[in-house]
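Example 195.
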Amino acid sequence: MASDTSALLTTERLHLALLPPDAAWRVLEYHEANRDHFGPVSPERPANFFSVTYWRTRLAQDREDFRHDVSLRLLLLPRERPLGSAPVIGNLSLTNIRRGPLQSADLGYALDHRYEGRGLMTEALRAVCDYAFGVMRLHRLHANHLPENLKSAAVLKRLGFTVEGYARSFLLIDGRWRDHVLTARVAPDDTPEPR
Ligand SMILES: CC(C)(COP(=O)(O)OP(=O)(O)OC[C@H]1O[C@@H](n2cnc3c(N)ncnc32)[C@H](O)[C@@H]1OP(=O)(O)O)[C@@H](O)C(=O)NCCC(=O)NCCS
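Predicted structure in complex with coenzyme A:
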């Protein structure tokens, strides 16, 4: 489990961290700055999503969920800034972690619009996939995107995800059931035995 002051993963340009509840305002700032950017691809959010109260509770819950192997929700921060004050510039999650004979999880991600086009999400996802297949010993990661979300499709392709299907009426976004492209990546052959 990451401590309050350390990142779970560090890449060339990023810290990937589970931030403590007192960082709630930084997460809120990130979501407020990206309301229009994330809105068209996001499922409905809770009524108090844009509040410090929501994020304080949510950050505490995220740490518990990781401790219990339920999910891993990381925030992306620029590495050149101290973790305690760096702005949040992205988020990334492994949810619905299933153990037993599946050993799978669903991958989600988003990047601040001001940081797009630099390869930062590709860099972050590469580290998280290695962590998921290595340390977490997962075998399969699923990622789904709207057919028109070409940036998301390109990131997944770069990371070695392949299209496995097309799900009609898959996810409720802004009051409409939307089709999604289903992709997945399977662990390399030398993955350790499942835990
Ligand atoms: C999907 C999303 C994360 C993609 O962000 P992104 O910045 O395009 O992705 P990357 O960080 O991998 O960057 C790739 C781009 O950086 C460029 N790039 C620059 N330096 C690079 C490097 N060192 N390595 C890789 N790519 C680099 C690539 O050429 C590419 O540019 P292009 O889009 O003009 O081809 C972002 O658009 C987003 O958050 N969208 C809203 C939320 C969303 O859609 N989430 C996914 C839901 S399924």
